[in-house]
Structure formats: C-alpha cells, structure tokens
Design goal:
By secondary structure, the protein is of the alpha+beta class. Helices cover 35% and strands 15% of the residues. It has 6 helices and 6 strands, in the order ααααββββααββ. The model has no long low-confidence stretch (mean pLDDT 84).
C-alpha cells in the first residue's frame, strides 16, 4: 500500500462528513444505535477495502467431493484444493489497480466469490458481522474524536509475515479533538 493510500483513507472519511454528521445528530453522552451504524455507507466501503488489502484468511481449503476438472487440471475426489484469497483480492482482472487503496470500488457489491475476507460459503466466519461492526465503530470514534498523524511513512510490507503488515508497524500520534 502506498503512502497516499493512508491520506486517501483519512480524507475519504472526513470529506464525506458521514461520521461527523452522525456524531452531531447525537445528544451528549448518547450511544450509537444500529440505525446510526446503518447510515455508515462510506465507512462500510472503507472496511471492505481494508479487508480486501489485508485479508486475514490467506487461503480457503476445500475437499473435492467428486472427481472434476478445474482449468484443464484433473482434481480427484478427496483432494484438498486451496483457494488463495489474497491472490484473488489482488487480481487485476477482478479489481482495477488492486494495490491502490480505493474504497469507492465497493460502491457496487463485488461479483460472487471475488471478495472472501471472511471465507466463503457454509464455512464463512461466524464473527464476520461482529468484526465489521467493531471496525465501523472504531473508525467512527477515531475520526470524530481524534486527530491522528502517521509517524513513519514507510509503506514497505514485512516479508514472510503470515498477515500483511507494515515493517514500521504504522506508528501514529493520536490527540483528542
């Protein structure tokens, strides 16, 4: 992910003012409601784009129930086939400029099986909705209650890491508004 991606992320949220409008609609001390969370359409796009770029699920193993042919390759019953979710999320035939942070790409839902941040099918992660909710709430509070600044702008990824993460760890300074 390039440095400008972090700036796009922050500016996207603030430019839309979605989160600030939600905060301003609340009385002092009141909590966010499900109705408020459902209004977070831009933050939902940001969450999906973050998950696309840094998938927790690296691969999705499936057992072939029958002999079949996949792209001219014979797969035998009982073989384990791994679907590489990260490769899929960075496939330029599925996502235009796949290494760029672009939440707007989720204005429309992706085609089935092109986005699998939480697995797919019957074995989709049970905590998927809860995880997305927590990310939305975190981002809401981050952009409405704090100003933050990235202290190390190195966009390099740590090699051989099980999960994609920046070499620097992305240290930030956070100050209350």
């Amino acid at each position: 992910m390039k440095l400008k991606s972090r700036e796009i992320f922050h500016n996207f949220l603030l430019r839309q003012l979605e989160q600030l409008r939600i905060k301003q609609s609340k009385t002092a001390g009141s909590s966010l409601t499900l109705e408020d969370v459902n209004k977070m359409t831009n933050v939902s796009k940001v969450v999906k784009e973050v998950l696309r770029l840094s998938s927790i699920v690296s691969w999705i193993p499936r057992v072939a129930l029958n002999d079949c042919i996949l792209n001219d390759f014979n797969v035998k019953k009982g073989w384990t086939v791994n679907i590489d979710a990260r490769f899929m999320h960075f496939d330029p035939s599925l996502y235009n400029q796949p290494t760029e942070f672009n939440p707007a790409r989720f204005t429309e839902n992706p085609q089935p099986y092109n986005f699998s941040a939480f697995g797919v099918g019957a074995r989709t992660c049970l905590g998927m909705s809860f995880a997305k909710l927590m990310m939305k709430l975190f981002l809401h509070h981050l952009v409405t209650s704090y100003r933050w600044k990235v202290e190390d702008h190195d966009p390099g990824l740590e090699p051989w890491s099980h999960f994609p993460r920046l070499k620097s760890g992305c240290p930030i300074t956070v100050k209350p508004i």
